[in-house]
Amino acid sequence: DLEAVEDFQLTDFRAALLTPPSRLKKKRKFDVGSCIPEPTYIPWPDDVGKPRQRLAAIKPHRVRHEFVPNTDQLLATGHKRYSWIIPVNGNLPSTVSLTSGIVVPPDATVEELGDPSVIIASQAHGTKDRITWTPADLLLFWLWLRDTRKESITGSISLSFTSMPEGSPSPNSDSPSILTAPPPKTGRSSSKAKIHYIALYHDAAQSLVLRSYFGSFNTLKMWKVLKEESKDVMRSKGFGQPAVERSVLKNARLLLADESGRGVLIS
After folding, report:
1. 106-115 long-range Cβ contacts below 8 angstroms, 24+ apart
2. Between 183 and 32, residue with greater pLDDT
3. Which of 33, 120, 160, 202 has minimal Cβ neighbours within 10 Å of its Cβ?
4. DSSP state, 172?
């Protein structure tokens, strides 16, 4: 019965076939290595003296986890050189929870980052899970460490800003694997690497006191004590006095590594 058949509705699919599907917006590639000026490895000066009383009066930082036994004895030795590993971008390989790092460009959008909480975090204190840097914070921290090194406040320290591929293997199941060997003085951290970090090399006996010292990093207070030549570096990058007072490393769980890059403890 043709009368019972509903009228056929003509559908034109040509427009749909000719219209290309919408593409997801790609995340912008941000060169984390561009935040730190050359050189990215700074050795300690030969004429550095003993740590000043200012550092000796600081209370040692609390140890949260030990990878090896008898850490008190290891830290009491005067001939070992250890390094604090401060995450800038990415997660260090570890079987124990460590604080990760991320750099948030000042004009980043939620679509690019994929997480609105990251932008909010870039204006707040750090957490045990993540250190959220802005390029200005990162450069300020680096310059403050460089100035501190010159004044011998922290004893014989040297700095490096370097990178490693994501998914680097651990040498064993109990210890993180990190690359503590400093890059060439004229080297640049690879923008393709997923993990960037600052290594702070120092005398092992000063490890926990030094951890308390740089852990108190506060953007506004550090700007006030920054040397004028370092402030000029900040201004040349378009950064001035921080508008927000932030404790970037507050509550962070950081790795202390020995000369071989093996984990000693987390503090």
Report:
1. 106/134, 106/135, 106/136, 108/28, 108/30, 111/25, 112/25, 112/27, 112/28, 113/27, 114/27
2. 32
3. 120
4. B
Residue 224 has pLDDT above 60, yes or no: yes
Average pLDDT over residues 142-169: 77
Q: Are strands 195-203 and 255-257 parallel, antiparallel or unpaired?
A: unpaired
Consecutive H or E run containing 15 = helix 14-18
- 146 membership: H or E segment, kind and range: helix 135-150
Q: Taking the alpha carbons of 203, 147, 86, 58 in that order, is the dihedral positive or negative?
A: positive
Q: How does pLDDT run across 8-37, given as a tens digit for each residue?
A: 444 454 444 454 554 544 555 678 878 888
24 or 245: which carries more pLDDT confidence?
245
Structure tokens at 74: 């290891």
Whether residue 88 contacts residue 161, with contact meaning beta carbons closer than 8 Å, is answered with yes
The answer to whether the CB of 222 falls within 8 A of the CB of 214 is no
